[in-house]
């Protein structure tokens, strides 16, 4: 390879690297904008939930529970 081919290869490599960075930057910017739009949409759609939670009108259902022991039964018709 002569010097001209090497120089052209370096220039092409640098141009491709710069284009890759530009392409990645555009993709990341579009992804960030989409994420912000989705985040804003979710905030807008759940605004009534946040308002109700802040008001504190929740209903508490009180009760008790117990753990019952599991009983295994052998059927009368079962053959061993």
SSE inventory with pairings:
Layout: H1 3-45, H2 47-55
Description:
The chain has helices spanning 3-45, 47-55. The protein is an all-alpha fold and 80 residues long. The protein has a domain at 10-47. The model has no long low-confidence stretch (mean pLDDT 89).
List its salient traits.
elongated, 80 residues, 65% helix, mainly alpha
Q: In a few lines, what is going on in this structure?
A:
The protein is mainly α and 80 residues long. Helix content is 65%, strand content 0%.
Largest sheet: none
Q: Regarding quaternary structure, how should these chains be classified? A: single chain
Shape: elongated
The SS-based structural class is mainly alpha
Q: Give the averaged pLDDT, no decimals.
A: 89
The H/E string reads HH
* Number of helical segments with 4 or more residues: 2
**Total beta strand runs:** 0
State the end-to-end CA separation: 87 Å
C-alpha Rg (nearest Å): 33 Å
Unreliable runs, pLDDT <50, ≥5 residues?
none
DSSP strand content? under 5%
Helical fraction: 55-70%
